[in-house]
Amino acid sequence: MTAATAVAAEKAMVGQPAPDFEMASTKNIEKLNEPVKLSDYRGKWLVMVFYPLDFTFVCPTELTTFSDRYQDFVDIGADVIGISTDSVYSHRAWLNTPRDNGGVEGLKYPLAADATKKVAADYGVLIEDRGIALRGLFVIDPEGILRYKVVHDLNVGRSAEETLRVIQALQTGGLCQAEWKPGQKTLN
User: Fold this and answer.
1) What's the CATH number of domain 22-157, 3.40.50.1970, 3.40.50.720, 3.10.129.10, 3.40.30.10?
2) Whose CA is closest to 79, among 119, 54, 48, 113?
3) Given CB 3.0 to 4.6 Å as the disulfide criterion, which of 19, 46, 54, 112 pairs with 25?
């Protein structure tokens, strides 16, 4: 994919309440009748992983990596949602496609359909002229405050390992130096 730019009045600001959302999702993959809402995740950490499109090349590597590490997220009190502007029907087809055929079969968390593109716009990742999202990753704390965000171009995937490290650093409530790892002391 080529370089792209998001154009939106971003509402997602670190240290502020995360923009609210409600989107159709694959929580119930058979009926597709169970949306995801920000309020569903009150009391736990939430990782929102925006990606451009189902059935592409980099996206399944990211989503399956986060799925393979899903229990590690659960173990630290976090949950994950994958989000694109594709429909829930596209998401379901992709979830039913084996990994060795470019699918994400066996994904352990839901995919949400931002069909109106409002959530991508609110989080500042919408590429308006293409109708897709940049790769954006947002960490929201148990009280609904946005604590971390990283947004980058379409051709580079994100790290589940780094996301876990950041959440654990945030959970210390302390000052965590560069390259801090869980188990290390924080700065005084």
Assistant:
1) 3.40.30.10
2) 48
3) 112
Q: Which amino acid is at 122?
A: D
Four-CA torsion 9, 14, 19, 20, nearest 10 degrees = 170
176 belongs to the catalytic site: no
CA atoms within 13 A on the CB side of 48: 38
* Contact yes or no for 124/35 (Cβ under 8 A): no
Cβ atoms of 66 and 49 within 8 Å: the answer is yes
The whole-angstrom separation of Cα 96 and Cα 106 is 8
From the list 6, 23, 53, 59, the catalytic residue is 59
In the block, which residue shows the tokens 């409600």? 22
Task: Give dist(CA 174, CA 186) in Å, integer.
Answer: 6
Q: How far apart are CA 16 and CA 162, in angstroms?
A: 22
The domains of the chain are located at: 22-157
Q: How far apart are CA 185 and CA 187, in angstroms?
A: 7
pLDDT in tens, 98-157: 999 999 999 999 999 999 999 999 999 999 999 999 999 999 999 999 999 999 889 899
